[in-house]
Write a structure and sequence with these properties.
Elements: H1 2-101, H2 104-108, H3 110-137, H4 140-173, H5 189-201, H6 206-216
C-alpha cells in the first residue's frame, strides 16, 4: 500500500512537471513571437526613417540649386546692366561721329570733338565699368539684403522640411509627434522669407541711380570722367 502511494505521488509529480514544462515552452514561444514582431517593427521603422531622410535631402538639394541659380541670375543681370551702359556710350559716340561726317565745317574740328569722347569712352571701358561693378559688389546694403534672404530661405526650408517629415512620421506610425523641440515651431518663416524677398526685389543701389541719371543725360561719360575724380 505504501509503495502504491509512492508510485501515485511520483506520477502526480511527473504530470505536474510536464504541465510546468508545457507552460514554460508556451511562454518561451510567446516571448520569441513578441521578440520577432518587435524586430520586424524595428526594421520597418528604420526603413521608414531612411526613406524620410532621403525625402528631406531632396528638397535641401533643390534649395541649394535654387540659391546657385539665383546667384547666377543676379550676376547675369549685373553684366547686362554694364553692357547697356557701354552700348549707350558707344551709340552716342557713333551718332556724334556720323554728325561730324555730314559737315565739312564740323569735320575741321572733328579731332578736337571726337578725341575727348574717345578718351572718355576708353576710360569708361577700362575704369568706369569696373568702378560701377565694384560699387555694386561692395555694397553693404546688397550684402545685408542677400544675407538676410539666404537666412530666411534656409529657415523656411528647415521649417517646411521638419513639418513634412513630422507628418510622414505621424502617418507611418499613427502617432502624434511632438514638434515642440523644433528650432522655430511658432515662427512664420514663410512670411519672413516673403518679406526678405520683397526687400531684395525692391532694393535700390545709389550707384545704379547714378548710372540711370548718366544714361538720361547727354554727357553720360562725364559722371565717371577722370577729370572729375570719378
Amino acid at each position: 500500500m505504501l509503495l502504491q502511494n509512492s508510485i501515485n505521488n511520483l506520477k502526480a509529480e511527473i504530470e505536474w512537471l510536464k504541465k510546468k514544462k508545457a507552460e514554460a515552452e508556451a511562454a518561451r514561444d510567446k516571448a520569441r513571437s513578441h521578440r520577432e514582431m518587435s524586430e520586424q517593427r524595428e526594421v520597418q521603422t528604420c526603413a521608414t526613417l531612411a526613406l524620410r531622410n532621403k525625402e528631406i535631402e531632396e528638397p535641401t538639394s533643390l534649395l541649394s540649386d535654387q540659391e546657385q541659380t539665383k546667384a547666377e541670375l543676379e550676376s547675369a543681370k549685373k553684366d547686362l546692366q554694364l553692357e547697356r551702359v557701354e552700348k549707350a556710350e558707344t551709340r552716342r559716340l557713333v551718332e556724334t561721329e556720323e554728325k561730324l561726317e555730314n559737315s565739312e565745317t564740323v569735320r575741321v574740328t572733328a579731332g578736337s570733338l571726337v578725341e575727348p569722347l574717345k578718351n572718355d569712352m576708353l576710360w569708361m571701358r577700362h575704369h568706369g565699368i569696373i568702378n560701377v561693378a565694384n560699387s555694386i559688389l561692395n555694397s553693404i546694403d546688397l550684402d545685408q539684403t542677400v544675407a538676410n534672404l539666404m537666412v530666411t530661405v534656409r529657415s523656411d526650408g528647415y521649417t517646411q522640411g521638419y513639418a513634412e517629415c513630422t507628418q510622414h512620421f505621424n502617418d507611418a506610425l499613427k502617432v502624434d509627434w511632438d514638434n515642440s523641440r523644433s528650432a522655430k515651431p511658432r515662427v512664420d518663416t514663410g512670411t519672413t522669407h516673403v518679406v526678405a524677398k520683397t526687400e531684395y526685389d525692391n532694393l535700390r543701389l545709389p550707384v545704379m541711380d547714378l548710372v540711370a541719371a548718366a544714361l538720361q543725360s547727354n554727357g553720360a561719360t562725364e559722371v565717371y570722367s577722370p577729370r572729375r575724380g570719378g
